[in-house]
Amino acid sequence: MRILVLGGSQFLGRAIAARACAAGHDVTCAARGLAGPIAPGARLVRIDRDAADGLDPLAGEVFDAVVDVARHPGQVRRAVAALKRPGVHWTFVSTVSVYADNRIPGQRADTAPLREPATEDVEHSTEAIYGAAKVACEQAVGTDAFICRAGLIAGPEDPTGRFAYWPARLARGGEVLAPGSPEDAVQFIDVRDLAQWIVHAAETRLTGIYDGIGPVLTRGEFLAECASALGSAYTFTWIDRTFLEAHDVRRWAGPRSLPLWLPLPDFAGFLTRDTSPAREAGLTARPLAITARETLDWLNAGNGPVVGLTSDEENDVLAAWHAGRTS
Asked: Which of 49, 61, 109, 269 has the most crowded CB, counting CB atoms within 10 A?
């Protein structure tokens, strides 16, 4: 197959291109080429998706499948107008942030309510309207495509450093600040598993809307399996939401955060998506231990960021917790 990846020079796009090349497909990556190198074996065509004529370098090219990972509605609309043709399989990678209700566990992609889409005049997404912008992108693509709503994506080459916090922290061992309770839900997908499924969808011409995430684990299982895979000696100190928020520990990602932690019950549904339709359609998930070890190997090679609490910040919160318990 001739597969076009709109992007392809960073994380998921690069992993999709790498998987498609490994499967023997003829792969073109269309990007500015600034985020990083494309996968070995792929061809780079330089484009500017923000320009009205930015896709002109692809004029006259013929593809069997197109994969788009964009977040900006203007870019998606222009790609659809220029490249979406009968007989071309189209994949759009969306996000579980499109959903309007994050409180109810176990929701499915085919029935969960969506956010209102960003308006037609919105060209670019921002963090504030990320979910709404992705809804607008989905609408631009249409219903005759494969729409993969990805959850948190983990693994080597992750530029966000979110998942990477936990292998890095657990590898140090000792007393580990664990947010919430051991029964809280955690859900993510290894980038290579998601890429494999996206290429499989193009090969089989799968269409429809799916949540591209792995199975639900409890936070206790997640942390214990990571630590065991890394050979760490550890103890977990579980600290509740009220205390964490009072000590300015932030949610999900970024400086002074505990990645993969979201306050409950506000986000009880965010990491508990029912992904059985995706698994029935071919999505598989490798063992957590492999993702943890290989992410740590990548970090140790000096290739990636880690975001979250620093060692000093974690120690300060733990000290305050213990002081409050003994006073």
From this structure: 109
